[in-house]
Amino acid sequence: FTQVPPPTLTARSIAVVDRDSSVLIYGRNEKLQLLPASTVKIMTGLVTLEHYQLSDVLTVGKIDKNGQDMKLLEGEKMTVKNLLYGLLVASANDAALVLAQNYPGGKLAFIQAMNQKAKDLNLKGTYFANPTGLDSDNEGKMFTDFSYTTAFDLAQLAALALKKETFLEITSTRSITISDVDSKIFHQLGNVNQLIGKF
Length: 199
What we know:
By secondary structure, the chain is α+β, with helices and mostly antiparallel strands. Helix content is 32%, strand content 13%.
């Protein structure tokens, strides 16, 4: 609108959308499909908020450790709200897996719900293969089935998520200590978003 050229940007794909209308304000390769990594957890959080009550208590099952985690212990019982803090503050893959494994029908049904939600939101360039965003194993070998999205879809998804009060509250948290339901096991979480509190 001002005819001022945008700053030098090095990202392969960019989308700036109006938060209220989701109208694209600025884009570059905004529909290019790329690996979303941990931004997958935005959809994991949305599906969780639609299915569970925050006070629901889930039990940690057997989890393969891969990537970022909050050090959940097998058999540990934790509220959905605290698991969401692990998911959205610390980007904990183990929290994502517990939320998915306790969903009716298990992890596969949870992933189906993620993809159905993407379809309902008309995110045409998006596909979810898991609730974590991991695209490779511990040795760095790429999975044969992996998630992808576009900057435009991701911007729309984030704008929707931030309209939800609980989502906004949790993602705005710089650090927090959470516990299991018996207050015997504690987890110190720090936000992986380094911009929190800088603006």
